[in-house]
């Protein structure tokens, strides 16, 4: 399975996926291209250091549909089967989602449907939850919304602040994304409404 990574920032989730592939924790999967909408994204530098193909399509000031059309064309040119959003700070257009039906994953640093949107870890901490976590889900037209592949829980400690909580969530994200990609690449599942359901063999 050829995956395309979309990122806008430091790219630690992307780096964790790449490390999993190199260490054979994730097999049958290769990163076909790393795409960013931000030229300065740290994740792009990591991709270059790893010798992976990269592409930049600056989104600022462009119409969403036009920008997305460039990204879709790039993903197709690299024969991408599965798109993995890894800190990609853009809503995808309906056209993008239709171009890769049930073939786009996202990771979000909360136990959805709690705390969608920005600064989810801080939202959870400020709310006073006792259990936080992360979610890998398929992407649909709504923000942080599609069918959930898996979640990992992270207890909130008495000693935590929003920053320390976010760090521990991030460590779980790095495990969760590899696990979720392996599940999707394995193909032994179906999506029933909102539910990701493993098929019995
Ligand atoms: C992660 O917290 C991810 O859950 C969210 O954006 C952040 C990206 O971090 N969608 P990184 O760029 O992968 O380090």
Blueprint (SSEs and pairs):
Layout: E1 2-7, H1 12-22, E2 30-36, H2 42-49, E3 54-56, H3 64-77, E4 82-85, H4 94-99, E5 104-108, H5 120-127, E6 131-138, E7 148-155, H6 162-186, E8 189-192, E9 195-198
Parallel strand pairs: 1-2, 1-4, 2-3, 4-5
Antiparallel strand pairs: 5-6, 6-7, 8-9
Helix pairs in contact: 1-6, 5-6
The chain binds 5-O-phosphono-beta-D-ribofuranosylamine.
The site of 5-O-phosphono-beta-D-ribofuranosylamine has 14 residues, from helix 1, strand 5 and helix 6.
Q: Can you describe this structure in just a few lines?
A:
With 201 residues, the chain is of the alpha/beta class. The protein has six helices and nine strands.
Could you name the key traits of this structure?
Rossmann fold, 9 strands, alpha/beta, 6 helices, binds 5-O-phosphono-beta-D-ribofuranosylamine, about 200 residues
Largest sheet: 7 strands, mixed
- Give the SSE string: EHEHEHEHEHEEHEE
CATH topology of the largest domain: Rossmann fold
Mean pLDDT: 97
Helix/strand-derived class?
alpha/beta
Structure description:
By secondary structure, the chain is an alpha/beta fold. The protein has 2 domains: 1-100, Formyl transferase, N-terminal domain (Rossmann fold, 3-Layer(aba) Sandwich), CATH 3.40.50.170; 106-201, Formyl transferase, N-terminal domain (Rossmann fold, 3-Layer(aba) Sandwich). Helices cover 36% and strands 24% of the residues. The chain contains 6 helices and 9 strands. It has a 7-stranded mixed β-sheet with strand order 3-2-1-4-5-6-7, sandwiched between helices. The protein has a two-stranded antiparallel ribbon with strand order 8-9. Helix 1 links the parallel strand 1 and strand 2 (30-36). Helix 1 crosses helix 6 (162-186) and helix 5 (120-127) crosses helix 6. The longest helix has 25 residues, at 162-186. Bound molecules: 5-O-phosphono-beta-D-ribofuranosylamine (GRF). 5-O-phosphono-beta-D-ribofuranosylamine binds next to helix 1, strand 5 and helix 6. 5-O-phosphono-beta-D-ribofuranosylamine is lined by residues 7, 9-13, 43, 86-87, 107-109, 170, 173.
């Amino acid at each position: 399975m050829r995956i395309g990574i979309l990122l806008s920032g430091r790219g630690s989730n992307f780096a964790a996926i790449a490390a999993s592939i190199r260490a054979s924790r994730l097999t049958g999967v290769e990163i076909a291209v790393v795409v960013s909408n931000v030229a300065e994204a740290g994740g792009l530098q990591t991709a270059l250091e790893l010798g992976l193909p990269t592409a930049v399509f600056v989104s600022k000031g462009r119409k969403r549909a036009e920008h997305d059309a460039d990204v879709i064309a790039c993903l197709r040119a690299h024969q991408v089967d599965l798109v993995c959003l890894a800190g990609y700070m853009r809503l995808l257009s309906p056209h993008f989602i239709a171009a890769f039906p049930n073939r786009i994953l996202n990771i979000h640093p909360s136990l959805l449907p709690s705390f969608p949107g920005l600064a989810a870890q801080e939202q959870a901490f400020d709310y006073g939850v006792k259990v936080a976590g992360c979610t890998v889900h398929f992407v649909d037209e709504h923000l942080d919304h599609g069918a959930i592949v898996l979640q990992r829980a992270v207890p909130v400690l008495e000693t935590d602040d929003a920053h320390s909580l976010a760090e521990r969530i991030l460590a779980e994200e790095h495990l969760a994304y590899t696990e979720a990609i392996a599940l999707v690449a394995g193909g032994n599942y179906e999506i029933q409404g909102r539910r990701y359901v493993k098929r019995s063999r």
